[in-house]
Amino acid sequence: MRIEKLDEHIKALATLEPVEAPVISCYLDVSTGPSGYRTVLDERVHLLRRSLPREDLRNFEEAFTRVEEFLQTGVALVTRGIALFARGGRHPLFLALQFEVPLPNWIAVDSTPNLYHLVELKDNYDRYAILQVTENSARIIGINLGSVTDQIWKNRPELRHRVGRGWTRDHFQDHRRERNNQFVHDLIGILANVMAAGGYHHLILAGSARALVAVKKVLPKSLAAELVDVVPASASDRISDVVAATLQRFLEHEELDSQAIAEELVSQIYTHRLAVAGTRASMQALKAGQVDVLVIAKDYDPGNGWECRRCGKADTQGAPPDACPACRSRHLREFEIRSELVRLAGQLGCGVEVVEHSDALMNLGGVGCLLRFLAPERYARTAA
């Protein structure tokens, strides 16, 4: 799956209107088959069946039947992680998303889909290109959400051995160098076109040391600026091994990017500029459409909040009251705060950055937003 398609699914799920039937959000690690998720799934479903109200249970069972049917017949051989969203009742929904990278075993039921793990996957596994090059051949590989989506082979032009037939050895060596240089320049041109067409903004070089030196010498500044790392590889390496080796390097690079964005958020907070921090301020900024990037610490776990379905009043602290204090409506919706923030970000179409560890971000409440424009003063508070 390409990121563009995942963005479409996230937007559709984020804007899904809540109805009387709950939505099952089911993330599973299927890399080792049913043994990797079956126990967790069974235990979680057993608990949900015991805790769901009777009016929700029938719709839950209808939706979960779709989940089980897909797990029995729909999982592709290359799939390592699955995200399933299902709803029964008068407004049925079923969406199965398969990925070649793992997802956690995590199952929830709520009035809206829980998108956190989907957005975290998108943040971690952005697209990048690999240029694998040896003395005799080259391969350009496009990686999108951990899957190979583009692949181009190019063999080095053959040079016939003509020493002793009118060519001196020096002439032969000069001609070979010229052919090799032309091959590398042609290769760089193809790489630039592939990266531009595929929207790849990161590059990893793989191959033999000698060939990589030749490539790096002529790499233009535009591509050199997108170079993430260099890894050793041979022509006999399987493409899956090359992808696995580069993927780990790319994840490390992505975390450095996340740390940099968290530092930028903290800097903006300290200088009272385009940022807010804390749960309440972040939710207000998202609802006001001000957010450019939602920044969440991986350890951020604020619990539940509630919202009035009639007037939209929301609170991120404490249990829902018997009635909305603003309009006295009893139609209140309880939500997991982290999921709600991600859902609002999906509706807005802004970026989401998940940071593995940041003490400074956690000190600000574990969540914050870089803003598109100056916020009203009430959003500039940094209280968690």
Describe the structure.
By secondary structure, this protein is an alpha+beta fold. The protein folds into three domains: 1-124, eRF1 domain 1 (Translation, Eukaryotic Peptide Chain Release Factor Subunit 1, Chain A); 125-237, 2-Layer Sandwich (Nucleotidyltransferase, domain 5); 255-384, Ribosomal protein L30/S12 (60s Ribosomal Protein L30, Chain: A), CATH 3.30.1330.30. The protein has helices spanning 3-14, 38-51, 54-73, 116-124, 169-198, 209-218, 221-224, 239-270, 279-287, 337-348, 359-363, and strands spanning 23-29, 81-87, 93-99, 106-110, 128-133, 137-144, 147-155, 203-207, 227-232, 275-277, 291-297, 304-308, 314-315, 332-336, 351-355, 367-371. It has a five-stranded mixed β-sheet with strand order 7-6-5-8-9, with helices on both faces. Strand 12 (304-308) and strand 13 form a beta hairpin. Helix 1 (3-14) packs across helix 10 (337-348) and helix 9 packs parallel to helix 10. The radius of gyration is 26 Å and the shape is globular. Mean pLDDT is 90; it is low at 159-164, 171-175 and 378-384.
